[in-house]
User: Which sequence fits this backbone?
């Protein structure tokens, strides 16, 4: 299996990868776990991700590599001698995760941080200033590797400290609706309403005769919350691949005294039911790259999860080739609303 560039730079310093209890955070879906097990035949290895797609991959590999896997909004309740952290794109997420790491390490633990230069890994020194002693170990393949020791521990990690709460008011199908939103670092457009979702909310159809709704790529639960608050009779489900988003959506529904089903899933693989409408501001990035496969898979499987006469309504950047994909899958589509940057599409 081909190793990613961050994994390759880690394996250039195998002497740093030896420990009895090891936690790999945000691991890449490659062969690194196998290499790590070879270096540590008897170690207790844990693979952690916020991303269910990575978790599905790790679960398939876990038995072979005798590793424990976890997809969650928090790191495992354990103490580790070595933490290997694949640095994320979102700096706010990194700050939160570093605090979580400091709450699950032994006194003499080592921390390795690896990431792509263009992904912002160089920020790690500032983020750990005064909290650990470290230095850059290696730089290659457009990546950098840092090592830290003497890490100041955190007695406990409380994720609620990182929540951002704010209130939004929109006109939904002719009525003003207000919702309290709970967001977390690492969740799409953390702490504010993005322009695309705003356009979608402002152009939602009348759902009076709709019985079931799926919010695909729910983020902080903005869309499902507004729909359920405006149309209280709807049975709503929110889905996201990111465990932080699923947790934030749970908190948003709770903050508005709403009830819905929250599903953590890579695409629609963990969904067995059909819906009258699927609404979405779907993701189009994998890491730093535009990834059309996400929506291609979504459109292809959405048909199987729509009731007869059901609608798929989504918002997207205008430059993305979604009309062509919708036409290919549904043979028809219409543009409900459009601005210079975004468009709302529907399959009928």
Assistant:
């Amino acid at each position: 299996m081909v190793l990613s560039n961050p994994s390759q730079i880690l394996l250039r310093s195998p002497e740093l990868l030896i420990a009895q209890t090891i936690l790999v955070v945000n691991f890449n879906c490659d062969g690194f776990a196998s290499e790590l097990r070879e270096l540590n035949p008897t170690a207790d290895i844990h693979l952690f991700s916020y991303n269910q797609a990575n978790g599905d991959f790790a679960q398939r590999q876990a038995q072979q590599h005798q590793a424990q896997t976890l997809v969650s909004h928090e790191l495992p309740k354990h103490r580790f001698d070595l933490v290997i952290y694949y640095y994320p794109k979102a700096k706010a997420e990194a700050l939160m995760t570093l605090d979580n790491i400091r709450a699950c390490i032994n006194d003499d633990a080592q921390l390795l941080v690896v990431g792509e230069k263009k992904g912002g890994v160089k920020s790690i020194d500032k983020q750990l200033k005064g909290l650990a002693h470290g230095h850059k170990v290696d730089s290659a393949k457009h990546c950098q590797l840092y090592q830290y020791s003497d890490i100041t521990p955190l007695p406990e990690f409380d994720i609620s400290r990182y929540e951002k709460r704010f209130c939004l008011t929109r006109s939904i199908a002719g009525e003003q609706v207000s919702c309290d939103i709970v967001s977390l670092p690492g969740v799409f457009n953390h702490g504010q309403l993005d322009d695309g979702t705003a356009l979608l909310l402002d152009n939602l159809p009348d759902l009076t005769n709709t019985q079931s709704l799926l919010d695909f790529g729910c983020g902080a639960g903005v869309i499902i919350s507004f729909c359920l608050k405006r149309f209280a009779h709807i049975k709503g489900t929110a889905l996201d691949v990111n465990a932080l988003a699923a947790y934030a959506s749970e908190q948003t529904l709770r903050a508005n005294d709403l009830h819905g089903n929250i599903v953590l899933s890579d695409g629609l693989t963990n969904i067995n039911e059909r819906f009258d409408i699927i609404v979405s501001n779907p993701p189009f990035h994998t890491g730093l790259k535009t990834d059309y496969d996400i929506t291609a898979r979504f459109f292809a499987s959405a048909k199987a999860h729509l009731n007869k006469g059901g609608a798929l309504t989504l918002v997207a950047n205008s430059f993305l080739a979604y009309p062509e994909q919708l036409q290919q899958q549904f043979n028809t589509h219409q543009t409900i609303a459009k601005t210079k940057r975004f468009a709302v599409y529907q399959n009928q």
The mean pLDDT is 92. The chain has ten helices and 18 strands. The CA atoms of residues 29 and 251 lie 29 Å apart. The longest strand covers residues 105-116.
